[in-house]
Amino acid sequence: MLIQRAYKTQLDPNNIQRTQLLKHAGCARFAYNWGLGQVKAGEKPNAMALHRTLNALKKTDFPWMYDCSKASPQEALRDLQKAFTNFFAGRTKFPAFKKKSDGIGSFRLTGTIKVEDKKIQLPRLGWLRLKEAGYIPKDAHILSATVSEQAGRWYVSILVKEEVEQVQLKDDTLGIDLGIKTLASCSDGTSYENPKALAKYEEKLKRLQRKQSRQQKGSNRRKMTKAKIAQVWESNCS
């Protein structure tokens, strides 16, 4: 059976590569916001049409975009089209502009993507080191790569298409229902209590959140506290 599967792992970029990653994330955010502005001005939320218009403006209005892979703004506009599709279907609210203050964000790349044990090659970014060796399969058919930033760390999620063997279920198969009050309830009546692994971090999070609420909005101290909260979640809750 052919399925799609994502493999996410942490990158280990150098300073030059970090700058390029920031440029690509900014390019994707700009394209999304530009496209949203065009739609609000009367254009249709069609990714291909918006991308053609944006490409025509790059040389004169946005030459800095040539530093990034063309897939970054193209995929961002596809995300915008999907956001409007969900809005028109009543599943989400009207798309909003993306703010840098809400986070660096992410970007998606397509094209030639290669994987080796300890590194990955991405369009326009070249070879980047991986924190975890051998996690991403080297022989899989790669569809896309999504790069994101969380609490100062960069990650790459690879979407691949691969063949998996179908397993024939036996009559004595045990069903498991995952929950919140209990970790798991099995079809044979057995239940397992939730270990509440986050309990020891709750007090630290509450303290930081109270501190953030007292600080002035937009101040550097508030931004530092927000970053600390993100680090606690990233280090202990992921």
Helix/strand structural class: alpha+beta
Backbone CA Rg: 22 Å
Q: How are the strands of the biggest sheet laid out side by side?
A: 1-7-6-2
Number of helices: 5
The percentage of residues in β strands lies in 15-25%
Q: Note poorly predicted spans.
A: none
End-to-end C-alpha gap: 30 Å
Number of domains: 2
Please, what is the average pLDDT? 86
How many E strands? 10
Helix content: 25-40%
What pattern of helices and strands is seen along the backbone? Answer: EHHHEEEEEEEEEHH
Characterize the biggest β-sheet.
4 strands, antiparallel
Approximate shape = globular
Key features?
238 residues; alpha+beta; 2 domains; 4-stranded antiparallel sheet; 3-stranded antiparallel sheet; 5 helices; 10 strands
Write a short abstract of this structure:
The protein is an alpha+beta fold and 238 residues long. It has helices at residues 15-40, 47-58, 71-88, 199-214, 220-236, and strands spanning 2-10, 106-109, 114-115, 119-122, 126-129, 141-150, 153-163, 176-178, 182-186, 191-193.
Written description of the protein model:
With 238 residues, this protein is an alpha+beta fold. Helix content is 37%, strand content 23%. The chain has 2 domains: 165 residues, no CATH class; 34 residues. The protein is built from 5 helices and 10 strands; from the N terminus they run E-H-H-H-E-E-E-E-E-E-E-E-E-H-H. A hairpin with a 2-residue loop joins strand 6 and strand 7. It starts with a strand and ends with a helix. 19% of the residues are buried.
